[in-house]
Design a protein that fits this description.
MAPK, about 45% helix, five-stranded antiparallel sheet, ATP-binding, binds adenosine monophosphate
Amino acid sequence: MAGLNRDRMLTDLAKRKLQIEFKLDTSPYEGVVAIGVGAFGTVCEAIDQRTDARVAIKKIVHASATSTLARRTLREVYVLRHIHHDNLVILLDMFQNRGSLGTDVYLVMELMEGNLDYVIRSNQIMDNNLIAFFLYQILRGLRYLHKAGIAHRDLKPSNLLVNSDCHLRIGDFGMAKLSQIDEFNEEVEEHSFYMTQQIATLPYRAPELLFSIPEHSMNVDIWATGCIFAEMVLRHELFAGHNVSSQIKILVMNMGTPSVRFKEMITSRETRWLLEDIGSMEARQWNDILEHQATPEAQNLIELMVQLNPWERVNAEMALNHPYLRNVKRHDDEKICPFKVKMDMAAVDNMSHEELIETLSSELSSFV
Ligand code: AMP
């Protein structure tokens, strides 16, 4: 009994902490439990007291403090507001509170039960049907997103939310961006930001980001998806580096020395030196890389996705037509991606800090 009282008291305290941290007292939401921490915010489970529905609330701290943070938040808001698809997370509500450094933004989303990272690291048996079903849903979500010209740019198992019925939705659109980039300088600024902030996602980082090649497109997501696919087969990360240079070494040692065309596109002197240091390497056999765990069809699709040269990778549509997915594919009722998100995302890239704050604020107040 004493144990039960103690547990209840601790649960109440944890809820109180959430209520204070998320400043939910003036909102219709009651915090239940903290469920995740991302690069830019924390996520809690909460109850919408008007409907009793359980939701997930993501708090983005200091969302307007710098142009980069405001731009990042606005991109996430735009994607979530305008994109509606079975395999992308659903935004239910948004609100803001004054924080210690400007505005904190709160995104209320449909609550999912877990993420693919938990599944991969659990004892759950992952047979080919389950892996194919998860892969199919990731690719469906990506095909829709890519039709709008948007790259997610931060796909990893913990951003792939799943329910116990195996339904998967892609989440965390904070790094999402239109792939056509006009301003090279801004891309460089964002690129170094990406390199320093996103260390946790190194194992899924495409070679063009890793080797500093300015030309990024939607197929950074195909690389990441191929790595996640291989991780579901292996039950551990495919290329697990600890920093940028060890990640580069691992890639070269497995995939061989990059092509001349690829090397000519590398802008960073340090990366060129590092490649010289590593010397010439032959590509390993995929069968060995995948520890003889993949079926021939699975291996073939992984090979088509995890290509060092971005221009040689398959796109989401081609991957969806691969025979590996034949048993899980449904008749497609694919929705057309709204054009509005494209225009909005393009505008974000040229806004000043003041314009970003103003637009963010009007987006938040216009949400119904
Ligand atoms: P994020 O900052 O969006 O990457 O979220 C951090 C973590 O919170 C994720 O890895 C998920 O485990 C969890 N999370 C995010 N959104 C949801 C959601 N809608 N439902 C359940 N868990 C979520």
